[in-house]
Design goal:
Strand content: over 45%
CATH topology of one domain: Elongation Factor Tu (Ef-tu), domain 3
Shape: rod-shaped
CATH superfamily of one domain: Efflux pump adaptor protein, beta barrel domain
CATH architecture of one domain: Beta Barrel
Largest sheet: 6 strands, antiparallel, barrel
Length: 321
């Protein structure tokens, strides 16, 4: 074979080998750049049950009249705070209303006489409460079955917890509440009561859980939808990592660490098994396998696997078995 041809083939081979080596080196650098280092920290973590709920009165009291007649005067409006024994409205019985109407046609003094002799009926508040509904207007005729007012002694939040979570919920647990109408307002509270009877919703057994807010903002209205996070467990001084630092391989929970004994100038990686504990959307508790101050590595997601190698990343660490 011609020496020039052989020399050309050798040059091509050397060039190809150099190119392949460069590709491998550059791939290694890309992979290194796609990793970020995280330190195991300590802090507080809580696990929550998230659900929805509704604002409603703890004691919803409907006020009705003991007589049929006409509304003469109303002393309160919706939203008013009333004490036990406060006057809510004044009514005339049907007979009194008819008598006064007839007296008005005759003489002013006769009307005043009957108003003094035949007293109005007073509607009183039976409890300390807030007026959340006023259903009447002056001059309106009412019967004994009509609702005049609705009182609420306290607004609470009823959370809807399904049966898969109800076993982790207990009275006294803390909760945070935000309204769909006012998502920027978050109120804390505590579970006051867990109802014993469930109701079926979308083929799931749901239990009502009463939560008493620590404060009642003025914007709270009965019937408002709420998002509720119930703190079922919490720990202080726990070892913490973000959820993305953990992976599941062959049924084991692992993190990525630098291999021990390797030169830091050309590092390699290995998977280390850990045991996790409490978890929320922000952090995971590490129960075993790491210590405070340890470092782990997380992929930034910038590396795209080639389809030709079946999705195998040649620059990822081998699995530690």
């Amino acid at each position: 074979m011609n020496k020039k041809i052989l020399a050309g083939i050798a040059a091509v081979a050397v060039t190809a080998a150099a190119f392949a080596a460069w590709r491998m080196w550059s791939g290694q650098q890309v992979q290194e750049l796609s990793l970020r280092e995280l330190e195991v920290t300590t802090g507080a973590i809580s696990e929550t049950v998230s659900t929805t709920g509704v604002v409603e009165p703890r004691n919803r009291l409907k006020i009705q009249s003991s007589i049929a007649g006409r509304v003469e005067e109303i002393m309160v409006d919706e939203g008013a705070l009333v004490a036990e024994g406060d006057r809510l409205a004044m009514l005339s019985s049907t007979e009194r209303a008819a008598l006064l109407d007839a007296a008005r046609l005759n003489d002013q003094s006769e009307q005043e006489y009957w108003e003094e002799v035949y007293k109005k009926t007073v509607i009183l508040s039976p409890i300390d409460a807030q007026v959340i509904v006023r259903s009447i207007e002056p001059g309106q005729t009412v019967t004994t079955s009509d609702s005049l007012f609705v009182l609420s002694d306290c607004l609470i939040v009823t959370a809807y917890v399904d049966e898969t979570d109800i076993g982790r919920v207990a009275e006294g647990q803390a909760a945070s509440i935000s309204l769909d109408a006012y998502p920027d307002i978050t109120v804390t509270g505590r579970i006051d009561h867990i109802h014993y009877e469930s109701h079926l919703e979308n083929n799931v057994n749901i239990y009502d859980v009463d939560i008493i807010p620590d404060t009642i903002p003025e914007v709270y209205r009965s019937g408002m939808s709420a998002t509720v996070d119930i703190v079922v467990e919490e720990k202080n001084d726990a070892l913490l990592l973000p959820p993305e630092a953990l992976q599941s391989i062959d049924g084991k929970t692992v993190v990525m660490q630098r291999s021990r004994g390797h030169d830091t100038a050309s590092p390699s990686w290995e998977y280390v098994e850990v045991t996790s504990g409490l978890q929320n959307e922000h952090a995971v508790e590490i129960v075993d396998g790491l210590e405070a101050g340890d470092h782990v590595f997380v992929e930034n997601g910038g590396f795209v696997l080639s389809e030709k190698n079946g999705g195998t990343n040649p620059f990822m660490p081998s699995r530690k078995r």
